[in-house]
Amino acid sequence: MKETLLVLFSVLLLVFGGLAMFSGNEDYAAEKLFYQAMQIDRKIAKNPEIAPVRMIVAVERNLKKIIEEYPHNKMVKPARMGLVELYLTHQKYVEVIPALDEVITQYKDDLFTVSKARFLKGAAYEKQGQWEKAAREWSVLRGEKYTNTPWGLQVPFYIGNCYQQKKNYPQAEKAYTEAVVFYRDIESANKGTPKGYTAANLLLLTYMQMERYEEAGKTAERIVDTYNNQLTLFQQLANIDLIFVRILHQPDKAIEIYNKIKAKTDEPKLIRSLEQRISELTAQKWKRPET
Amino acid sequence: MKYNIKKNWVTSFDLMITRPIVVLPFLIIAFLEALALELLFFSPRRPLAILAAPVIRKFFGEAALHYPGNLAILPKQFYYAQVLIYVLAGVFLAGISAEIVRGLKAGQTVRIKAVLKNTLARYPSFLIFGLLVIISLYLLKRTDTFIFLKAQKLIFIHLPRIFLDFSPYIFSLFLFLSNVILQAFLVLTIPLMVINKKPWFKALWSSIVLGWNNFGAIFALVFFPFLLYLPITLLKIGTNKLIYCTFPEITLYISGFGIALTAFIECLVLVCATQFVLDIKQEVTR
Hints:
The complex is a heterodimer. By secondary structure, chain A is an all-alpha fold.
């Protein structure tokens, strides 16, 4: 009996040991390191200001280990991006620039990743007050090939917002005006496509920032007329209410657009909320401010 | 007939301690399950991944081939391996254990080769019975799910929200209880096949009749040992939450600990059931 038990236990140990030694460990080890890093990062994200330094160091160490010990593994890319986000979250701008340069070099054929890296590099320079370097990075993103990426598209709007936050209103106005031209061109060239929709939305936001509410309203109406997707229609409800009802005090126009949306959708919840809003607006009496 | 459950437990437990050969078949089952668990743990990695990866990808998705998804899905994969082991070897080895108990109680010298020869001749019967048990458990789970979903719609929606949040655990307790009730009718089959030398269908029928006539005693014999396994069952339900709160390898440790616990519980239940059949036989002979 004892011998049998010993033999069985030895077989189990041998099998476990053999598989552990000879199994292709690289993928598994890299994935495990990445998971552990992200678990600590999630805990840090709950309260980044008071996160202990050893936790931040642990995340950095794990991610760097993946990059150094498994250089050809598929986890290297998410590890590099994870490292960049860690540095940005904790304002380690000196470390983040070389990390982003490495991403741009390693993945130069991956437009999506490179555009994100350039955008974040510009943001890092901007946070350090190095505006010229930031502008240089973002100017690359205004190239034709980057307009197919989310960061390439939002750069003109982001630049305007940066100037706005710095209270540099003339420059903000100039940047927003350039953004309007940029988004109008992309919207008209890509009408009916997701890219066209994103450009239209960014155009609407730019007009809102410039307080050109009439044009923002026309853009919202144009989006409703052009795009039939339920989600896109739903996303415009808040814009229409804000622009036509609360700012321009044109409830009739809002009702007209709500009726257009109602005609385009068969989603019962959406129809119900539209009907409710239409009856509310019909019942209300809006007075224009006296001039 | 009022049956002395406590005496049965004491006798059975004493037999397991003093004559550990009775436990050996269940240790072999535990060995097979542990081996299966090891192979499943390493299956997403080379060299096992060469064969296992397409199968895992097809049935469990790509996430089951990467960390920590492979550990989240491990209890489910292990369950299927346990079913296979139970049908192909578990019932047969339990039959060997019942034969050993019979021999020891009759004062005979236990010769493993003779026991093996006797039990091997009835392997097809054990295989059929094992399949029947698995099918019964599957049908029981489907029935319980149906009843529970109806109860949820009719009753739970009127109860405080907490009942809905804990419904997987409540369902698990409900399933556990119905499992034990089912086992009370099936547990005597293997001892009856071995001791009374009955064919599987006659032994099954006798087990159901005996279970009906002595439900209280047999239910108690089965219920309390199975209760020891309930915490493992409940832990396995909350696998994803457990991984999130602790670490992914915990599923491996819980499954491993479950193997050891199952070996002990299954052995105790089988020995108790065999003792019960022997007591009934003695009573009838008197």
